[in-house]
Amino acid sequence: MNKAAGRHAVGGPTSTDEAIVVEHLRVQRGKRLVLPDLSVRCPTGQLIGLLGPSGGGKSTFMRSLVGVQVVAGGTITILGEPAGSAGLRRRVGYLTQAPSLYEDLTVRENVAYFARVLGSTEADVTRSIADVDLTDHAEALIVNLSGGQKTRANLACTLVGNPEVLILDEPTVGLDPVLRRDLWNLFRRLSQEGRTVLVSSHVMDEATRCDRLLLIRSGQILSDSTLPELLARTGTEDAESAFLALIDGSAA
Amino acid sequence: MNPRITLATAGRILSQLRHDHRTVALMLLVPCVLLGLLAWIFADSPTPVFDSIGASLLGVFPFVIMFIVTSVSTLRERTGGTLERLMTTPLGKGDLMVGYALAFGLVAIVQSIVATAFAIYVCGLDISGPVWILTAIALLDALLGTALGLLASGFARTEFQAVQFMPAFVLPQFLLCGLLVARDQMPSVLSTISDWLPLSYAVDAMKEVTVNASPEVTKDFLVMVAWIIVSLVLGSLTLRRRTA
Ligand SMILES: Nc1ncnc2c1ncn2[C@@H]1O[C@H](COP(=O)(O)OP(=O)(O)OP(=O)(O)O)[C@@H](O)[C@H]1O
Ligand SMILES: [Mg+2]
């Protein structure tokens, strides 16, 4: 079952400079065609924001990237391999939008379990708990944590694997400004280490923190550019108005 | 499959149990209470009814309890999103199935030692055969419950459905296993069906250990092991990496 697992050293060099290549991705969920035809390319080592309205298909897109979404057509290549292939499972980290943790275990026990599954060390466990600022709560049961603390514990379980590509579905939702700033600094650090980080968000001012912005609405990429390019193109002052201008423009 | 991941999974499931004292207490005490009740019911009976039924029940408890515990906890993995997360990691389906079987098998050994000791020393159950065979049967029985529970949870979408699978999967086997009416005295259709059900063999083996100093249980063991393997394989087919 894990035939190709362990073949790639974590953080090892990749032969490709495009970490994520998506071509004509088509996803049907129930009766709804959520992603009709989506193509996008993400360079290695960038911090990329995936922004868009609720129900626009952000989570569906991310699920497709990590290989847990049934896909109707198209191809997704990550680090040169097809999405979801066994060799990628150690190299691609996924953060689910809703915390997916064992509520009856402590923070440390949760992170340590995923560390063992991913082949990480005890030091990785301590570091990733510190990265999300939960060291003081490491021995608390998940069920006794606040919503934002659960979000962070969830993130620690993803970080512990030292993935080369991080697919993070709304990691900063419901957190205070200080924590959000700290986490965005962490994402920046990860991308400076050469990791590719894709972060979805509703909060438009987080756009200023990204190298590149993907705006997605109704399963379609409205824009794929840097923030300054986007502002210039729409003639607006900030990400929020640029986004509204694009949506109004595309609806018209 | 990868032994490191399988063992990590079994360890994680045991940690979850360790935090849940009430469930552990229920798993260990309920069989004893029921055995005690049964021995009490037949306390004034002229024939040694408890000796024949008591041992069979030792074969039923681990099965039923492990079935419920496993189907509910794997359903929680599905609905809580941890299964989806695990499916993006190197964890193989076999790691999860065997992890569960290992963890609950260990619990079953403890459970059957406690229940058997209670039946023998407190309720005065007479067992002619070696006690270790009785424990081995209880272990296989618990693994059977775990394996069928894993399989059943694959067909449940909600907790309510998972709980309903208990009567649906388990009660028919309980009625047909020979505890109420000897299997060879049932209508032939029913006795044929009972020949195919795993719990019948667990109860047969338990009866054999009670009455026979050197019990012949090889066939019963083989049938149970076959059921365990088939259920685990079928159960792993219900786990999908990709979902709609
Ligand atoms: N399991 C499902 N079955 C059928 N349709 C679904 C399912 N999950 C999501 N959808 C539909 O797919 C569309 C996209 O959902 P998705 O979760 O990808 O949006 P999103 O951009 O992540 O939204 P949000 O910002 O609210 O998280 C929505 O219209 C939703 O109703
Ligand atoms: Mg979403």
UniProtKB/TrEMBL annotation, chain A:
PROSITE patterns, per database record: ABC_TRANSPORTER_1, ABC_TRANSPORTER_2
Alphabetized InterPro entries for the sequence: AAA+_ATPase, ABC_transporter-like_ATP-bd, ABC_transporter-like_CS, P-loop_NTPase
Name of this chain's protein: Putative ABC transporter ATP-binding protein
Molecular function (Gene Ontology), one example: ATP hydrolysis activity
Species this protein is from: Phycicoccus elongatus Lp2
SMART domains in the cross-refs: AAA
Superkingdom assignment: Bacteria
Organism placement in taxonomy: Bacteria, Bacillati, Actinomycetota, Actinomycetes, Micrococcales
Xref: Pfam families: ABC_tran
Keyword Phosphoprotein: no
ABC transporter domain segment(s): 20-243
The entry's keywords: ATP-binding, Nucleotide-binding
Automatic annotation (TrEMBL), chain B:
PROSITE patterns listed in its UniProt record: ABC_TM2 (PS51012)
UniProt KW tRNA-binding keyword: no
GO cellular component assignments: ATP-binding cassette (ABC) transporter complex
One Pfam family recorded for the sequence: ABC2_membrane
Localization in the cell: Cell membrane
Topology versus the membrane: Multi-pass membrane protein
Domain ABC transmembrane type-2: start-end pairs: 22-242
GO MF terms held by the record: ABC-type transporter activity
Transmembrane segments: 24-43, 55-75, 96-121, 127-151, 163-182, 221-239
Presence of keyword Transmembrane helix: yes
UniProt-listed GO biological process terms: response to antibiotic
Record-stated family: Belongs to the ABC-2 integral membrane protein family.
Protein name: Transport permease protein
Provenance organism: Phycicoccus elongatus Lp2
